[in-house]
From TrEMBL:
UniProt record similarity statement: Belongs to the CarA family.
Native species: Neobacillus piezotolerans
Name this polypeptide is given: Carbamoyl phosphate synthase small chain
Catalytic activity as recorded in UniProt: hydrogencarbonate + L-glutamine + 2 ATP + H2O = carbamoyl phosphate + L-glutamate + 2 ADP + phosphate + 2 H(+); L-glutamine + H2O = L-glutamate + NH4(+)
InterPro entries in alphabetical order: Anth_synth/Amidotransfase (IPR050472), CarbamoylP_synth_ssu (IPR006274), CarbamoylP_synth_ssu_N (IPR002474), CarbP_synth_ssu_N_sf (IPR036480), Class_I_gatase-like (IPR029062), CPSase_GATase1 (IPR035686), GATASE (IPR017926)
Gene3D superfamilies: 3.40.50.880, Carbamoyl-phosphate synthase small subunit, N-terminal domain (3.50.30.20)
């Protein structure tokens, strides 16, 4: 069935619908990863977004049961150049089309994703919709321009109730702003006794759990739409070691008096080089974010920059000068992508040990 993608500036692309054939609306973003479409689809940070994959052939190794980053994907739609109909991989249990149908995610294939990506890079991410080809693109664009972007994504994807992921090691409270399972997996592999809590948990509720450390997860949307988390962070900083990833990094910056800003098209992919300021060492990282910390806003704060993006100089890591707390904008758990920065989880546990010794 022919379907079209219409952007808020009136640009339209006609392709073929696959997966679920419902209408989809949201922010159109692109990811440059060559592989990892299953993890990308199931990453809660894509809540409310129409995801364009720049690699031309998607779905050639199918969908397996192991590589999900959430149980229920939150992406609004998937847009590709070509979707493989006959995947070849010993782990494959579904085709991409079958999986999108099961999860009721609209797909669009057969469009020029290179042209679409160039438009988004030039003009920035835009609102868009996948609809029938009988719709007038200019009329659709006019409606899109009147509709605000979704701002409750974290509430949608966060767990509603606390739950444990038991271990016999350090007790970690993982605040779920849209957590990828890869973060929980890395903590479990290090023996941590993890309790996952909702995004709107108070500082008092978290501290009552007696954590050795607090982990701030990734998540979707604008960090300024989650004021509850900023209040919570102001109540725990300095009391318990903190490690934040992606949205957790941005929320940490806001809680410490810095500011965040929307990027033109963000960082979404598996090959973003990041330089550690202290050593000059460069690691290749997995990233997925559309907001960043404003460098000028750090002047009057107690934060210092630990990592910088090689490509555009944006802030990729922060450390508090006085409290045991640090954050990164990239994803050390990868999934998908390289595991160059995986050692940051060990650094977090070492920081907890140091905090305990200093307290003793």
């Amino acid at each position: 069935m022919k379907r079209q993608l219409v952007l808020e500036d009136g640009t339209s692309f006609i392709g073929e619908g696959f997966g679920c054939l419902d209408e989809a609306k949201g922010e159109v973003v692109f990811n440059t990863g060559m592989t990892g479409y299953q993890e990308i689809l199931s990453d809660p940070s894509y809540c409310g977004q129409l995801v364009v994959l720049t690699y031309p052939l998607i779905g050639n190794y199918g969908i397996n049961r192991d590589d999900f980053e959430s149980i229920n994907p939150a992406a609004s739609a998937l847009i590709v150049k070509e979707a493989a109909e006959f995947p070849s991989n010993w782990r494959s249990v579904f085709t991409l089309d079958e999986y999108l149908k099961i999860k009721k995610i609209p797909g669009l294939k057969g469009i020029d994703t290179r042209k679409l990506t160039r438009i988004l890079r030039m003009h920035g991410t835009m609102k868009g919709t996948i609809c029938g080809i009988d719709e007038n693109p200019l009329e659709v664009a006019a409606r899109l321009s009147q509709e605000p972007l979704q701002c409750d994504q974290v509430k949608i994807v966060s767990t509603k109730n606390p739950y444990p992921s038991p271990g016999r090691g350090k007790r970690i409270v993982l605040v779920d702003f849209g957590m990828k399972h890869g973060i929980l997996r890395e903590l479990n592999e290090r023996g941590c006794d993890v309790t996952v809590v909702p995004y709107n948990s108070s500082a008092e509720e978290i501290l009552q759990l007696g954590p050795d450390g607090i982990m701030l997860s990734n998540g979707p949307g604008d960090p300024k739409d989650v004021p509850e988390a900023i209040d919570m962070l102001n109540g725990i900083l300095g009391k318990v070691p903190v490690f934040g990833i992606c949205l957790g990094h941005q929320l940490f910056a806001l809680a410490c008096g810095a500011d965040t800003q929307k990027m033109r098209f963000g960082h979404r992919g598996s090959n973003h080089p990041v330089r550690e300021t202290a050593t000059g060492k460069v690691v290749i990282t997995s990233q997925n974010h559309g907001f960043a910390v404003n460098p000028e806003s750090l002047t009057e704060t107690d934060l210092e920059v630990t990592h910088i993006a090689v490509n555009d100089g944006s802030i990729e890591g922060l450390r508090h000068k006085h409290f045991p707390a640090y954050t990164v904008q990239f994803h050390p758990e990868a999934s998908p992508g390289p595991e160059d920065a995986n050692s940051l989880f060990c650094k977090f546990l070492a920081m907890i040990d140091s905090h305990v010794q200093e307290g003793a």
